[in-house]
Fold this sequence. Notes:
- The chain is built from 14 helices and three strands.
- The chain is mostly helical.
- The protein folds into two domains: about 1-90, no CATH class; about 115-240, Orthogonal Bundle (hpI Integrase, Chain A), CATH 1.10.443.10.
- Strands 1-2-3 form a three-stranded antiparallel beta sheet, with no helix packed on it.
- Helix 2 (about 15-35) runs antiparallel to helix 3, helix 7 packs across helix 11 (about 240-255) and helix 11 packs across helix 14.
- The longest helix has 21 residues, at about 70-90.
Amino acid sequence: MTDWDRGLRSSGRPETTRYNYLLAVAQFARFLAEHLPGDNATAAALDPSETMRTHVEEFQSWMIETRSAATAVNKHKALQQFFKWLAEDEEEIDRSPMESVKAPSKPTKLVPVMGDQETKKILDSCKGKHFADLRDHAIIRIYYGTGARLSEVASLTTDDIDMTTDSVVYLGKGGKFRRVRFGPKTARAVSRYLRARAKHHGAELPSLWLAERGAQALQANGIKIMLKRRGKRAGVAGVHAHRWRHNYAHQWKLAGGDTGDLMLLLGWSSDAMARHYGASAAAERAQDTQLRMGIGENV
């Protein structure tokens, strides 16, 4: 796992991706050792080259039963990458045990967006002049106004923000850069935070977001914890950054925005993601059309 992580880092994989990949492999090894009896599974827990197709299938079934099909799909993707590296880069195995293992079926469901009223409640919880209030307000505004991924916002540096053009440069998946504009309310929140940041102990650090105490950066996990805390304080359940990403796509599609432009702004290379994220907007448009047509109300 250490060697694989080194390879992932050298290929420029984001920290969050590496973490999720390594977590999946660690969970798989622990499952083999603790939940799957038999000498073959015990050997595979210690040496991945001993892994068999049945081991992976049992692990996926266990993931579906104890977590969800969506989680099992993510673990499947991570294990695919691990065994591909083991076969092609390290040549430790002749072929990957994942070759004949089908990915679990992932149920399609509409992801609830983070609407305006919910966002207002969360932003209201940030009212105040303390450093954390100004910082959290700016972070939430950035998510709300640009639809960026959790890791993209967390990894921003001070050089990535341009207050002259009110824009931000994100480093997305696949090492792709993109510039996204933000509105005046977001610009005001970021500007107020930057003034407070200039007086902070960690002002000389390159990271845009700083922890409240000490000269250290606020990491992605810290932002996740902050959002949950703000949500609890505001009485809003299920607060996480990705809901604002869905909201961005939702509002864009409701307004009739171009799919290609949306893909550029959100850093997608496939229109399948645009369809997935725009599904809630499509459902809402369909419901509005249904009401306007009055089907079932003629008699």
